[in-house]
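Why do we care about 3D structure at all? Because function follows from shape, and shape follows, mostly, from sequence. That is the central idea of this module. The next example makes it concrete: a single protein chain, its amino acid sequence, and then its structure expressed as tokens.
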Amino acid sequence: MIFEILAIGLIISAILALFLDEVVYSVAALSGIFFFTAIIYALSGSLFAAIFQFAVGVGTLAILFLSSEMLGEKQIKKASPAKTAGLIGAGVVLSLPAIFLSVSTKKNLGIDVDFGEALWNMRGFDVLLQALVILTIALGIAIVLYERRKK
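And the structure:
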């Protein structure tokens, strides 16, 4: 049951991150995505992937928050509670398969390989590439901010 609740939180956070108009709220919803993903990794037995997902998430959130505050234009627009409630409702509807269908927790992916080990071994290179992309984005934002300050 815990995996279903985490899946619901993950889907609702993803929908809110995509469709909220205010950048700060979208970044907060994105933090929910990283948090729920890290918890799912940890509960699946892949502790190192969970720690790295959390660390990458914190770095990504810092970069997105700083870039959205520095580079984004300020919009004075009040968020509609009906729209936010509609987005949460859409997330709940999309989560119904996770509620009523079984979410597998641990499966063997071959001969004596558990899910956590396979996830970390298969995603090791991918995780390093994610870190490289985040570093590149951070450097790009630093360059843009430096050039903007220079003018």
